[in-house]
């Protein structure tokens, strides 16, 4: 079973600026969970597209109800790969991001497509899709809910991080209140998701004893 | 969620159970040729010894990407040497840490995914 999610985002910056920011978006105030960043492959194709593979390590703290089911030795850092294609002729960028660790516990794949906003040539539209799946017997639904909720929180942080870096690149001082509002909203989403996932997990547990 | 306790005072050093070093961001001191980029914090490499090589390469790449690649200028890539040095270091670190990067085609995982 796979949970699918799709959303659209908008950045009020040109596609060029967004692409430049894409390579410089870490660190930012919303990315404290991203520990390391490395380009591990890069090439310009014969059709003049830039293809790259980026390796990220992120903190991977599971909620307490999930930690009980994890093997004791499981690392608390997660490895993530992000592949991207930048096409300067078509003015599009496509990215694919997925975790290469903890994948049997939970797998999250995200595909993004960046293009010039058709209504405003100075803006950039981001179409984002995600697939969340888990194979843990008896808990996959709860884990998928948790994964999807965390993904949505992550999208908020990603967009805020982008806006922050874009503002800095243009010499502006990003507003502090922007950061604070984002934190609040992220916390609220996380809390709601935590409750829902906890609920699902306790239902799953009850079923085991029937 | 437990992990959303992170605060937004930046540069929290995290030491995890496995014992690998935590992240410490550091502000890069100003470089004369790039006055606008003073005090831009930067990321570490997964290979602790590779961080300087990574930052050197990133600086070269970011300039080439914005000033040449996106503007359709196909004249040579000035970053091949710094890339080579960086890759030699980081690929060794990846092997040493046994990070499972092999065996997946570029853009591979999404090949069979249904469209929205």
UniProtKB/TrEMBL annotation, chain A:
Pfam families, A to Z: PRELI (PF04707)
Superkingdom of origin: Eukaryota
A GO cellular component annotation in the UniProt record: mitochondrial intermembrane space
Domain PRELI/MSF1: 2-174
PANTHER family: MSF1/PX19 RELATED
Annotated protein name in UniProt: PRELI/MSF1 domain-containing protein
Upper classification of the organism: Eukaryota, Metazoa, Chordata, Craniata, Vertebrata
UniProtKB/TrEMBL annotation, chain B:
Entry's Gene Ontology BP terms: phospholipid translocation
Catalytic activity: a 1,2-diacyl-sn-glycero-3-phosphate(in) = a 1,2-diacyl-sn-glycero-3-phosphate(out)
Keyword field contains Mitochondrion: no
GO cellular component terms attached to this protein's record: cytosol; mitochondrial intermembrane space; nucleus
GO molecular function: phosphatidic acid transfer activity
Disulfide bond keyword on record: yes
Pfam families xref list: UPF0203
Keywords for the protein's UniProt record, in alphabetical order: Disulfide bond
Cross-referenced PANTHER family: TP53-REGULATED INHIBITOR OF APOPTOSIS 1 (PTHR46403)
Family: Belongs to the TRIAP1/MDM35 family.
Protein name: TP53 regulated inhibitor of apoptosis 1
């Amino acid at each position: 079973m796979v949970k699918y999610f799709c959303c659209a985002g908008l950045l009020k910056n040109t596609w060029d600026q967004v692409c430049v920011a894409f390579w410089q978006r870490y660190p930012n105030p919303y990315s404290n969970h991203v520990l390391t960043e490395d380009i591990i492959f890069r090439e310009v194709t014969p059709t003049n597209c830039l293809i790259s593979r980026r390796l990220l390590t992120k903190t991977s703290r599971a909620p307490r109800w999930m930690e009980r089911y994890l093997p004791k030795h499981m690392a608390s850092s997660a490895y993530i790969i992000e592949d991207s294609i930048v096409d300067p002729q078509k003015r599009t960028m496509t990215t694919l991001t997925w975790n290469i660790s903890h994948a049997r516990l939970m797998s999250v794949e995200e595909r993004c497509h960046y293009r010039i906003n058709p209504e405003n040539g100075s803006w950039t539209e981001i179409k984002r899709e995600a697939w969340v799946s888990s194979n843990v017997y008896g808990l996959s639904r709860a884990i998928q809910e948790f994964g999807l909720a965390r993904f949505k929180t992550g999208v908020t942080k990603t967009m805020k991080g982008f806006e922050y870096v874009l503002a800095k690149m243009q010499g502006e001082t990003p507003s502090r209140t922007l950061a604070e509002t984002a934190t609040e909203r992220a916390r609220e989403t996380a809390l709601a998701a935590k409750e829902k996932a906890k609920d699902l997990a306790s239902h799953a547990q009850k079923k085991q004893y029937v | 969620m437990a992990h959303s306790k992170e605060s937004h005072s930046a540069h929290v050093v995290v030491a995890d159970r496995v014992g690998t070093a935590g992240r410490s961001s550091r502000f890069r001191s100003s470089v004369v040729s790039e006055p606008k980029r003073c005090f831009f914090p930067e990321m570490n490499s997964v290979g602790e010894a590779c961080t300087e090589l990574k930052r050197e390469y990133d600086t070269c790449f970011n300039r080439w990407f914005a000033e040449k690649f996106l503007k359709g200028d196909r004249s040579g890539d000035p970053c091949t040497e710094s890339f080579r040095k960086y890759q030699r270091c980081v690929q060794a670190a990846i092997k040493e840490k046994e990070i499972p990067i092999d065996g997946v085609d570029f853009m591979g995982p999404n090949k069979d995914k249904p469209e929205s």
